[in-house]
């Protein structure tokens, strides 16, 4: 008899009625076996049919939009309109359709990178991995990053890999609806039934065992640093490819010229910190305010944080984690200016602003430069550019880094950008990082430990597809045996 | 006082006079610090100057060709003409000049992948890693894969990364001459002096410590599986990028049609197995002969192996390793048909042919499917295609896999290729894998454990350069702050 679990409504704190299965190892083992058959079938499948499957996924999901969005809202308390029902839903559909276009593209600029050297009779391209991609989505984007319908799923399928998708235990009914739509689309497109297999949840040790299994070619994960590092260790030990998005401080450096208009900067930053209750991967959790303008900025930011509504966290555990994190930052020398408390009903938490001076921040760097998952931000008052540069040099790899500039800040930009450029995937100027445009030029990635490899991006087609491919050379192979795009 | 070491002449077994330093940790630590300065300097360097440096490397090396080749010959016993003085030397120079062209290329099809989205004001490209690449070359290609002058070096520099290069203890005087030429080229091009730093040798634990150091962005390694896995573990634990080429059986599957001409196939295979004394990464160490033609092929191969001169191994240790490996294969059920002995003078070893039936090979797979580094090959007699397919499915990731076909082998090709395609980087038909053409369509890579990542190639510009780059996004950044190729 399988174990089961259920979710909660974060807005009320009430348990939800639906029971969902915790999938056992024998079931995962059978899925891994089936995925090998699906991998072989996909390798012989016309790319146009894989493209048709991804389009059918988008169509099937769209047809069930209102029910899926309402379910996601109930399980996550993220705003129904426009966030879930429009913005994130359209993003999910757009990603699937972009991936469909890429899947069907066999041209010279496609992710397949076809190369033909007539003189040597040596050709190359990129192709699927020969095993399943285990796709594990996060808690904070129940649709667009979901393991069974999100960007990693779409990229893995576009490259011709079967997917074993794990839902997130905080929104299992959403995952069930998404998986049902995708399963129906498999039938629509006439693909092997194990092209996508869905797991509502499994024990962590079984998940790690699956990652280390040779039938699993790659794992895709978005989530916490602790879980990500455990997954990375399992993948590394077995040679499984890992595409990991772990955590990021997403530092903002505000130069003196930008601080000359404290109200505008405070509005932008506070809005970005509290968006989605501060549970974005790209939340700009630390702002380094450089020079004498820091105090006026902090005052303005305080007013914004105090005026914002409490954010609803995704999980009850999140309240305790955030409170503990805030207390740890305070005990390391930061001062809480506002917020700091959970609020009834449900999993609400006050927007929370903390400040610290640059010397203390550097002195207690490991304790203070930590992600607070929720509507909380830390302003670091740096005496001058030199202190800000010292901070920048201490930073680990980040998804994003932002430099806010104004009049007279060219030298400051140059100095900071030269340090930050190789420490982040996306460098922004005068723009908050929480908006991640789904365009080919986007990089949603960055150096370790923000991700596992700085060469990859989880958003942006076709680069996101390349993560799940291998480089293949065909040396002296008769033309009749080559893929169409190499003849 | 530093420790020192010296090399041997493998042809005579005599110790060579020159003493070389074993570099200590404090020296490595200072090199890591200097490489951070060089990384910052390179980030501000005109790509044309990096290109000029790589060309100057080629010119400086070419000017010292006869002395370098003669020294490499003395230390490795690889043939002076044409192998070292012509073929491998020209390959080294060609790689450096191809990398130079790529380094200076800022166009839309270059490794920089410049992308401009005017509508969103989001741009992206690929750029250097922000730290040093620790480049560790192998014993078997003292020039073209050398840490300080080979393909990994050229690719890392082309991407704008400083290099800390480690020589190989079997050919230290060669390494010293290569490093001297490269050091002179740094001055020619006016680059930061720590752009390339050379280490003759270091203790393994100091090398692993360097790999785990945050100032080292990547490690590039070609060599044994044991050393490669130790390096991978150190790199994985610290988030250092690793480009690893470990070992490979490079299996050949000979279908019945190909076995109809046993003499030709035997000549090609025996020549490939014994080339360079069987010390190529792509040596086809295992040949699976399918069907009744196997015996005639084995007889023909035996004659070729017996007629070939003993191969000179690179190291005295290699004799013992090879003898132990052969004995282990014999004790697991293989039969030695010829060879098997070391020969005086120097580090010579007889070309050695072993055979085994398919059932025994499958039964003792882990013991028999192992790399024998040297002039030794194993023929597996597979009863039929089904048994060959079972063998193919058991294989780990490989650099290459070869299918030899003749009349009537189309179905055999299709069945084998569908299994082998995702298990190797390069799939060949009727061609032995030891020739690795330096062309853009080459893939010298493959799934784990042949390498660390199936998406990368160590040979072929520009893909080999991409290994040592990060994906960078510029979001909302003012045009005056962008690289030229993004404006």
What would you note in describing this structure?
The structure is a homodimer of 487-residue chains. With 487 residues, chain A is α/β, with parallel strands linked by helices. Chain A has 2 domains: 3-246 and 451-486, Aldehyde Dehydrogenase, Chain A, domain 1; 252-429, Aldehyde Dehydrogenase, Chain A, domain 2. The first copy, chain A, contains 17 helices and 20 strands. The first copy, chain A, has helices at 25-43, 47-63, 65-76, 80-104, 151-158, 172-189, 204-212, 225-238, 256-259, 262-274, 294-307, 316-331, 358-363, 365-368, 385-394, 410-420, 463-466, and strands at 3-5, 20-22, 115-117, 122-127, 132-136, 163-166, 196-199, 216-222, 241-245, 252-254, 286-290, 311-312, 335-338, 342-343, 348-349, 352-357, 376-382, 398-404, 424-429, 470-475. In chain A, a hairpin with a 4-residue loop joins β14 (342-343) and β15 (348-349). The N and C termini of chain A lie far apart (53 Å). The mean pLDDT of chain A is 97. At the A-B interface, α1, β3, β4, α8 and α16 of A face α1, β3, β4, α8 and α16 of B.
């Amino acid at each position: 008899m399988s174990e089961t679990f259920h979710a909660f409504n974060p807005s009320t704190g009430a348990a939800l009625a639906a029971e969902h299965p915790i999938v056992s190892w024998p079931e995962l083992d059978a899925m891994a076996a089936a995925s090998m058959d699906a991998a072989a079938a996909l390798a012989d499948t016309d790319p146009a049919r894989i493209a048709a499957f991804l389009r059918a996924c988008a169509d099937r999901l769209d047809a069930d939009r209102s029910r899926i969005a309402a379910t996601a809202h109930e399980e996550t308390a993220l705003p129904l309109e426009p966030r879930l029902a429009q913005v994130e839903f359209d993003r999910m559909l757009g990603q699937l359709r972009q991936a469909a276009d890429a899947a069907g593209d066999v041209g010279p600029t496609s992710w397949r990178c076809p190369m033909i050297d007539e003189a040597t009779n040596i050709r190359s391209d990129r192709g699927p991995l020969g095993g399943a991609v285990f796709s594990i989505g996060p808690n904070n984007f129940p649709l667009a990053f979901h393991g069974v319908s999100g960007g990693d799923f779409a990229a893995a399928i576009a490259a011709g890999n079967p997917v074993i998708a794990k839902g997130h235990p905080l929104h299992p009914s959403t995952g069930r609806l998404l998986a049902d739509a995708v399963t129906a689309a498999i039938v629509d497109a006439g693909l092997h039934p194990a092209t996508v297999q869905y797991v509502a949840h499994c024990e962590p040790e079984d998940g790690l065992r699956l990652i280390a299994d040779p039938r699993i070619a790659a794992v895709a994960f978005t989530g916490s640093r602790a879980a990500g590092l455990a997954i990375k260790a399992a993948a590394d030990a077995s040679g499984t490819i890992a595409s990991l998005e772990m955590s990021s401080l997403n530092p903002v450096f505000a130069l003196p010229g930008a601080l000359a208009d404290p109200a505008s900067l405070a509005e932008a930053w506070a809005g970005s910190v509290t968006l989605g209750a501060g549970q974005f991967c790209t939340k700009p959790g630390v702002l380094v305010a450089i020079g004498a303008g820091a105090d006026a900025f902090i005052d303005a930011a305080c007013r914004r944080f105090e005026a914002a509504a409490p954010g609803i966290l995704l999980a009850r555990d999140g309240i305790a984690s955030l409170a503990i994190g805030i207390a740890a930052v305070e005990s390391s020398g930061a001062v809480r200016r506002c917020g700091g408390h959970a609020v009834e009903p449900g999993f609400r938490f006050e927007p929370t602003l903390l400040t610290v001076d640059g010397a203390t921040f550097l002195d207690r760097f490991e304790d203070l430069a930590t992600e607070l998952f929720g509507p909380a931000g830390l302003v670091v008052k740096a005496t001058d550019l030199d202190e800000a540069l010292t901070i920048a040099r201490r930073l680990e790899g980040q998804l994003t880094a932002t430099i806010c500039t104004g009049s007279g800040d060219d030298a400051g930009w140059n100095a900071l950008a030269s340090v930050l450029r190789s420490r982040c995937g996306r460098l922004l100027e005068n723009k908050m990082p929480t908006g991640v445009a789904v365009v080919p030029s986007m990089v949603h990635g960055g150096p370790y430990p923000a991700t596992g490899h700085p060469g990859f991006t989880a958003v942006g087609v076709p680069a996101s597809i390349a993560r799940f491919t291998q480089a293949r050379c065909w040396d002296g192979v008769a033309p009749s045996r080559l893929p169409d795009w190499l003849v």
